[in-house]
Design a protein that fits this description.
The chain has a single domain (2-146), classed as PH-domain like. It is 33% helix and 28% strand. It has three helices and seven strands; from the N terminus they run ααβββββββα. The chain has helices at residues 2-8, 15-25, 113-151, and strands spanning 35-40, 52-56, 59-66, 71-78, 82-89, 94-100, 105-111. It has a four-stranded antiparallel beta sheet, with helices on both faces. Strands 5-6-7 form a three-stranded antiparallel beta sheet, covered by helices on one side. The radius of gyration is 31 Å and the shape is elongated.
């Protein structure tokens, strides 16, 4: 997890906030689930308990501190449920928004612009991967079906003996 953490960090993130989130996420991640990026809210004034958004290869997880930071609420959405993602850049930061297929829309405001862009890029990549394997699987299955037809043994055609018709004469019409 520490190697993955180094890959996620950039100059706009607070390492302590990221470390706190990742320690809580350790028990929430499914097998074969990897954190792709973590963005932490940074409000214009002092941000004591920032919201965070975590994108993994399987889902988006919203992390919201509760009870003066003593507890954390996690809300997650599988990539299958996500319909689209958006970024809106403003003067004081960016808003990352995603919508679900059930018409729910979630926005995390006041994200540093670099973080919002990375979230957006990662989300687009995951949505593209979600679309592509289905098409790739269909093409692959069609290709395998064609290969199977080609590889199959050739059809055996039954030969029927024919009569020799070379000495056949036509009756004349004048008769």
């Amino acid at each position: 997890m520490l190697d993955n953490l180094k890959k996620i960090l950039n100059e706009d993130q607070d390492p302590k906030a990221i470390e706190k989130i990742t320690t809580k996420l350790d028990n929430l991640l499914m097998s074969n689930e990897e954190v792709g990026y973590i963005a932490v809210q940074k409000k214009p004034a002092v941000t004591i308990f920032p919201d965070s958004i975590v994108v993994t290869n399987k889902r988006i997880i919203l992390c919201k501190p509760k009870n003066l930071g003593l507890s954390m609420e996690f809300i997650d959405y599988d990539w299958d449920d996500i319909e689209a993602s958006f970024v809106k850049e403003g003067i004081l930061g960016s808003d990352f928004t995603f919508s679900t297929k059930s018409d729910l829309t979630h926005t995390v405001e006041y994200l540093p612009k670099n973080q919002a862009r990375k979230l957006y890029t990662y989300a687009k990549e995951q949505l593209e991967i979600l679309k592509t394997p289905k098409a790739a699987t269909i093409v692959h299955e069609q290709s395998q079906a064609l290969d199977a037809e080609i590889i199959q043994e050739p059809e055996v055609i039954e030969e029927i003996p024919t009569e020799d018709t070379s000495h056949f004469t036509m009756p004349s019409l004048n008769e």
